Amino acid sequence: MPASLSAVMIFVADVDASAAFYQRHFGFKPRTRTRVPGEFLQLEAGGACLTFHKAWGKQKGPTGSPNHPFKIVLRVPRVAAARRRLVAAGVKMGEVKRFGTVQFCDGRDAEGHVFQISNRT
């Protein structure tokens, strides 16, 4: 299955403040075509994206935790086909979800860390 690193997703309480830190200190530039103000923002980070996603847990705090604050996102050409191959190989995978033309599916690696396969460019 050909794949490439698309993004590292960081779950945060304040998308804009988090992204501003990396823009200010590392010079990463925002990808305006993949921005949902206050909810989702991607920065170009040298071939892959650093992605900030607003997410809240039951205690009204960010869902990221010291154990799972990041999600590696792998770009694949066909999400459903890649999911089928992974499930057949015994990998625990969720269902394919869609947001417009973007398709994605979360899975868990051998130690239980969350990763995502996506057609997002």
Describe what this molecule looks like in 3D.
- The protein is of the alpha+beta class.
- It has one domain (4-118): 2,3-Dihydroxybiphenyl 1,2-Dioxygenase, domain 1, CATH 3.10.180.10.
- Helix content is 18%, strand content 40%.
- Strand 2 (29-36) and strand 3 (40-44) form a beta hairpin.
- It is elongated and about 45 Å long.
- 20% of the residues are buried.
What are the defining features of this structure?
121 residues, alpha+beta, 2,3-Dihydroxybiphenyl 1,2-Dioxygenase, domain 1, 40% strand, elongated
**Which radius of gyration do the C-alpha atoms yield?**
15 Å
Shape type:
elongated
The strand line-up of the biggest sheet is 2-3-4-1-5-8-7-6
The count of β-strands is 8
**pLDDT < 50 runs, ≥5 residues:** none
* Overall pLDDT level: 83
Major beta-sheet overview: 8 strands, mixed
- State the name of the first-level CATH class: Alpha Beta
Task: Give the secondary structure arrangement, pairings included.
Layout: E1 4-12, H1 15-26, E2 29-36, E3 40-44, E4 49-54, E5 70-75, H2 79-88, E6 97-99, E7 102-108, E8 114-118
Parallel strand pairs: 1-4, 5-8
Antiparallel strand pairs: 1-5, 2-3, 3-4, 6-7, 7-8
Summarize this structure briefly.
With 121 residues, the chain is α+β, with helices and mostly antiparallel strands. Helices cover 18% and strands 40% of the residues.
